[in-house]
Amino acid sequence: MEFSSKLIEKAVNEMSQLPGIGKRTALRLVLHLLKQPKEQTGFLSQALVAMREDIKYCNNCHNISDRVLCEICANKSRNHQIICIVEDIRDVMAIENTGQYRGIYHVLGGKISPIDGVGPSQLNITTLVEKVKSGSVNEIIFALSSTMEGDTTNFYIYKQIADCEIIVSTIARGISVGDELEYADEVTLGRSILQRVPFEKSFKSN
After folding, report:
1. Three-state DSSP class for 79?
2. Which residues contact 128 (CB under 8 A, 6 or more apart)?
3. Exposure string for 170-179, b = 16+ CB within 10 A, e = fewer
4. E strand or H helix at 154
5. Are 192 and 172 in contact (CB under 8 A)?
6. Among 22, 103, 127, 170, which is disulfide-ready with 82 (CB 3.0 to 4.6 Å)?
7. 3-state DSSP assignment of residue 80
8. CA atoms of 81 and 141, how far apart (whole Å)
């Protein structure tokens, strides 16, 4: 792709680093921004810089937040004795959109995947285990995607807290095996949360 401007070329190259954005789509976006008033482009750049510099992670659940505690953990009307374990912020958003869950979350930041070099130490597992062993939790719900990596992560965490007297459940398999949680429709995901099953039963039946 030939460019008449090195500035346009650089902007296109940076834009095309985003997932799902090829060079042609990046060029269309860059040319669109070029047609906008300068202040509009300035608002976008300021928002992106502020996001990178000021974003925080919740001290309690590791969710992305503007403050030390995210809005969910800071909400006293939520049930803080039930923790839903998810992979990342997209899964929190997906479950919140169902309106069916009133507990809090724990964001792992990924799944155990030896092929990708991701082990338990790279995830937020230690803080979860400490939280459970503190006695402040009645139930944890595994809500990771039903992939081999998701199941491996679930089982690893389950073994870490096996001695704790709490309810360990997993979302019902209304979510197809191999599906990513964030792509599930809200009705199916909501029902999977409400109809969760004991975790031990889920892996013994596989």
Report:
1. strand
2. 83, 85, 106, 108, 140, 157
3. bbeebbeeeb
4. helix 148-160
5. yes
6. 103
7. strand
8. 11
